[in-house]
Amino acid sequence: MPRSANLPAAAGAPSMFEFADQVAAGDAAAAAPAPVRQLHLITFRLDGEEFGLPVETVREVIRVGDITRVPQAPPHIRGVTNLRGRILPVVEIRTRLGLAPLVPRSTARIIVAEVRGRVLGLLVDSVAQVQKLPADRLVPAPDEIKSAHTTYLTGVIHLNDRLIILLDLALALDLPGASPS
Amino acid sequence: MSDDHAFAELIRDYIAECLPLAEAVSDAFLRLERRWRDGDTHADDATGLKGTLHTLKGNSAMMGLAPMQLVAHLLEDLSARVLADPAARNETTAALLVEGSSLLVDLVQSAADPAAHAGAADEYAARVRLHLGATLGATAAPLRLERRNSERRDAGADARGTIRVDFRRLDTMLEIFGEAMIERSALLEVHRRLAARYGNGSEIADLDRVVSSLGATMKQLETALMQTRLLPIATVFGRFGRAVRDLARDEQKQVRLVTEGDETLLDKTILDRLGEPLVHLLSNAIVHGVEPEAERVAAGKPAEATVWLRATALADRVEITVTDDGRGLDCERILAKAQALGLDVPSTDSDAVHALIFVPGFSTADRVSHVAGRGVGLEAAAAAIHALGGGIEVGSERGRGTTFALSLPLTLAIVRSLIVEVDRERYAVPLSHVAETVRLEAGTLHEINRRGVAMWRGSAIHVADGGQLLGTGATRTAPRNYFVVLFAGPRRRGVLVDRLVGHQDVVVKGLDPTLGRPAVVSGATILGDGRVACILDAAGIVALREVA
Description:
The complex is a heterodimer.
Chain A: H1 16-29, E1 38-46, E2 49-54, E3 58-63, E4 77-83, E5 86-91, H2 93-96, E6 109-115, E7 118-124, E8 126-134, E9 138-139, E10 153-159, E11 162-167, H3 169-172
Parallel strand pairs in A: 2-11, 5-7
Antiparallel strand pairs in A: 1-2, 1-8, 3-6, 4-5, 6-7, 9-10, 10-11
Chain B: H1 2-37, H2 44-62, H3 66-84, H4 91-109, H5 120-135, H6 140-159, H7 167-198, H8 202-228, E1 230-232, H9 234-237, H10 240-250, E2 255-260, E3 265-267, H11 268-271, H12 275-289, H13 293-298, E4 305-313, E5 317-324, H14 331-340, H15 350-355, H16 376-387, E6 391-397, E7 401-409, E8 414-422, E9 425-430, E10 434-439, E11 445-448, E12 451-456, E13 459-465, H17 466-470, E14 482-488, E15 491-497, E16 499-507, E17 521-526, E18 532-536, H18 538-543
């Protein structure tokens, strides 16, 4: 997993704009000057749409192994899986976003992310790529689609024919202490 | 934000480290006060406390906790005085030592909230200084010297090879050990397949030897690892001196607490959960067991009652008893109460009657006090002990006293379990909670009021369907072939399962809070094939009210 060595490890999930500032600062410190501020994102697909997360919150991406259901767990929890001897909760992010549960295919992956000190696995249809995107393309999500349920949308990036939706994971997962920034 | 967080963590560490020390000091001064009152005015206890007080002072200073630093310092001065000057060994000094150490416990306990005891330390300091000034002139110089000597002694003790390790590191080691156990089971599987394919070649024989000696080494490693997690039970027993004294005073009784077997070792995870049930049992002994003073004297007993807290190490368990020399349990009253409540009384044998006091809801309202209504406190204590995989029993002799005996496992980190399968999901069931597994035969299971019932050891027990209990959502993909009888304390419940897979030592891992707080599952583990299995919470399952 590529990481920018200049980035300080952020505590919790930074807002995307803070993150953009850090990226800018990091690039400024590097030898090669960056003409435009960059967002370093990992993108993945859920039901055909492309979503993005700051790479910094992502520890690794793993293939989907056996997932053990946990009786009486909250509805958006798919179960737990063995991550090298550690028991990793796997979140069905699709149902959090109002989609049907995933029927895993060979492209499915678990994104292991660290959110507010917790390590969680996000079950996604597929992982697209890790890339840097110009921060000036980030615009707020249109008001029309915003509601109490969509505060976890940080914004969208429109790039050529792609629309990448940026998620605030802490809000999307409804973790304690998360509040819209 | 993150600084605050780090500070909160430091405060937590401070409390975790200093509270037992402060409690030990408080306990020792209570004993000293008692001895002096009885006319035995040596002050040796104070010598032993110098290092502890010094540590408390140093740790408090490091955290910038001035009130704690001040009180620890004053206690040092007071102890130095009583050591140097026998004339200072009087009631006033003893009262100041007890008060100060008690204040120190309160201060350390509420370290996260510095405003909690604002001014108390200064007010106490004023009185100590007045007292020290009144009894003798300043003797600072020789005392300092003595303190330096004791510091040197402490340093020597550390050099003998004791190190302090963050408990989380021990947890990490255990996790790694768990992975090694899983890898070993994988190796055994490969070994089995190789032996099946190539028969008894000399390489296979070598492999046999390696695999079996690896097994023995792993067992030794497990034992050694478990030993690093053990702490003396004194860390829990030491907390009770003050609580017993305060409660006895509130009840206008004289009660002496005697602890034995303080050095008995138990896993820290168990010790952490043992304080509360023991408080319930001690309160119960003081409030209900011990008679009022006049009644004791009339019965020819000493006015001062004794409560014993004893720990004994057995082969694979630890037994803890709480004994009082009070009035004992009143069988007739218990029986009358049980009949009034419509409880099932199996026998009028005194043991059977005594056991009724643990039955949930057995609360004799006429004897409820603010601390421990008999019934409520005992029910809570019993539930806590059962949740630890332990047992609780009571024995009593009318007029002579009552003993509660707890039996506890040495560790919760590695648990011998029965692996069962329900609708193709595997679960680990701690053997400490399995009474028996029963194979279903035609006519074993009956249905009463749409609930499964089976006769088991002469009584009818409820047998729940594992699939429904665990919400597998499957429509009986496999036939239920067995039921497992779970028990916790007096409660039992059968659970129907498809298959018994086998016995296995499993490394218990906690559930992430993201997973909620399931009532039927207490943790998870990784099985030999690398898959995660949930560990059934037997105590939770037998306590469930609504199960089909």
